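Researcher: Re-running this chain for the archive, since the previous output was lost when a drive failed. Same request as before.
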Amino acid sequence: MKKIIAASLIICGYALGYSQSVDANESKYNLTIKSPDASQLSKHTDIPTSTHTGTVGIDIPIYTIKVGDFTLPISLKYHASGIKVKETASKVGLGWSLSIGGISLSKQVLGREDKGKIQYINPDSFNPVQSNINDYDLAKSIKEEFSKLDTQPDIYSFSLGSAAGEFYYDSSGKIIQIPYSTVKIEDSFVFTDDQGVKYFFKTGNQTQTVGGGTPAPNDFSNTDFIITRILLPTGKEIKFNYQSSSYSYLNNFYKGLKIPRACVYQNGTTYEEFVTKTNVLSESVLQSIEFEGSQVKFIYGNREDINNGLSLNKIEVRNPQQALISDYSLVKDYFTSTDSPSALGYDSEIPYLMKRLKLKEVVNLKDNSKYKLQYYENNPLPNRLSDQTDFVGFYNGKLTNHGIPFVAYGDKIYGFGDDKNPDINYAVSGSLKEIQYPTGGKMGLQYELDDFYFEGTETQIGKKDFLISNLEPLGGIFNVNTNGNTVDFRITFQSTANPDEGPIGSLPEGPHFVGELLDNTNTVLRTFLINKEYEFVENIKPSYKIRIRKVGNVSSNQYATLNAQWYEKVSEVKQYNKSVGGIRIQKITKNDADQLTHETEFIYRDENNKSTGRYMADDIEYSYIQEIAEDQELGYTCEQMVISNSGNFNISTINGKPTIYDKVITRNKNVNNNSESYEITDEYMNLSHTNPKNARSPIFTYANNQFARGILTDRKYYNSQHKLVKKDSYTYEFDNHFNNLSNDYSTGFPSLTIRPYYIGVKSIACAVHDANGTCLGRNYTFTVDRFEISSAWVKKKTMTSTDYFDNNDISQITSYTYDSSYRHTNPTVVNVDFSDVGQRTQFEYAHEKGNQLMISKNMIGIPLETVSSKTVGITNKTLSKTNTLYPASQSEADLKTSGLVLPYTILSTDLQNVVTTEVTYDKYDPKGNLLQYTTKDGLSTVIIWGYNLTQPIAKIVGAKLSDIQQPLIDSIVNASNTDASAGPGNDETAFLSALNTFRSNTALSGYQITTYTYDPLVGVRSITPPSGIRESYVYDSANRLEKVIDVNGKMLKEFKYNYKN
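Model: Regenerated structure tokens:
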């Protein structure tokens, strides 16, 4: 919908695209957003839960998958950074996400979607003018309507649990990590961490955004990716299965003014508004996780806040026999809005705008224990398209907001006068207030507004009015408070005795009223005779006066009013703690039942009460200057100011939290025992981004200095008497070496991986006409802007730890040295200096050892050799040396480790430089299970694996695998498989009998035998050592270890559980 004010705006269709769909894709105000679930997960990557962000994370554990030594925890995570008005709830609930080991991969589209790589442009020289034909033609091809070429790289965010980061594709299609890490990323989205664990991803959704223009052909985006399997170095794997879903939701209500300037054809102000709708054409929804024959199942239901959306309602864990091991129910409700939204033709979507999915309880159905959740709901969130938001998108409760604040342009003021100031009473709406644990204990969260110390000039624009009637013959005097030299007045004159505006020259006849504007000397500046609104600019005066006079004998039943409206623009230098929006954690309280036990308070102030915050986001601007090509024949160009509401760029977290902190004090108070209270002060390095602020480029620039934020430089510990007891200090080095991996690297800017271009069209003019005057070819004038993507390897160089005592201080300095050849980023030498004593630990990895097999599988973070030495004075002595041997080729792996890259020998070197074989791993099975090992005393041990090769069921010390007849092994392996199929808590008599028969076999009488039984996915059920005295392990209804008993039922150990906050 468009509303034309004063005059119509005419835009011709050009060969180069200025259609709304192209403009919307490139403008930060209509940024392509990720899916609700991916957006919620991205918070944990983009905004670390740390004191420097003022954010904490809440975790409700569901189940931990264990495959060998690899663990994959499944939990529900909450990110306490607040809820924005436009935020759409995930399938778990508003603010919550389903975490599978913290694994995620998503993409923030910048400009057009890259589809693999960006367009290459010379990083040092680009001049798209007609005389430089190559650059000129390249610019034309990029700016063509529906072009798939793009100069802005999309940013991918990933997390593997053990590692996280961001990357983009350069112009050669190569993946460039920000910052560089030892994670190997392949084009097919296979990630390999430095332990050799592989994570396989694929595209997980296909979305299309409709609104503000017709989408281009095949104009859809892929913003989310799904994990399909995890492959361990042992060859074992975890598989993920999905179901397909499609849904839609409204995500933005764009409102904008376009004010032409020095234009030939465009003279009026245009108001434009439209609602954008996201159609999720397909989304892969996690259905189950398979591991070693067992499954974690995710069960969904319908929801009322997204059309055709899904809600995660249940999580089950089942063993290979489908017995229920773990069973959680997610109880849902809704945050309900009470205002009345407008959806511009999408009326059927209004009910969805009024609700947000709420996670109310998490119930363990095995024992009926539950987590109960409460939220801040005193002031219900408005509908998701509401304009009642502060500067960064949080609810501020301003009912009169309509989308656009006042913006000054020349001598005039535009906009709706929205109040964007934050209000903590509304900003906390929808945020988590309290979590009650199954034990009855509670944790409460209290918030306050983010702020930062502001020093500079601040401009306030306000709308004022002054009204009089004919009953006030003396009129009224008012002052205008502004720093400008002029005042933009809007005066409305209404009289029952005067004519309405009509044909030119129509004036009142007979008795009537006259409205007047006078200055402080009673000089009449303006006269008003016609009923209408007058708009004009006057020079600033000390004061003004308006009055209404009678002309002739006006009847007493006639009346008149004169209403003066004007804007006051006041700029002044200020120094204060300023908030533009966003919330931070102020206090955490912990209760045991109903009694307060602990308080943790966070202070974001320095010793002078100045905020330690830094504002890191874009400047608070709602306008930009846009050059437009008015006429394709004559090449007319003009400027227009575009003023709009904030759009979607407030929703993306790719640039982190807008306000972060350099120093935070954490005060921990034990309410019942003050002697256990303490205080920690953290100080951080936070580097702001270097992108210039250019009002003529409303593109979203990736300000990626996340790698240089939240870097801990000092941590101080104080006791309950506020006495300093310990201090840790850290130093770092910013190394730019890996930036030159980018195809778009420029040697003139070593701290950058790329300086992307943004190309705009300034003017278009016809260059050639045919005989009929038809334009056959056009010349274009381009504008070029650039922004910067920086990166660095932040190397920890030293850590100085000082303990403070009554009489002296003791310091220890740890320094780190890294591979000078940049083959990896692991420390190769760690020196610890303490007084006159130093300890040195030297590490060698696959690269140092030349193990090409491990390098090829990216197993480059495993120390293969560790040497420890000690220096006293000038004397250095080697204390220990350990070598772990892995196969260096596939043929060696086939021979020694069943084809897998696993260790086969550990060597140690003593003080006399004598090398000893500590242990030899003699034999593995194809699943990576160790079957036999031999210690340095020559004693071999056999391990027999049962329960479908997932658990060790017998350990035979002194034997070799060849000493044990295969039928004996098969007898207990088959019995364990039968026991597994019976389910948890079954009668183990048959299996225990088989184990006893095995133990008593005369062929094994010379060996020390320990046997084990299990409830798969629960834990060990019994252990029978060589003595034959069995211990049994008993679990409660929630499958937690409850007690250990002997063969007579006597309790040996008992376990009680509390919940960590």
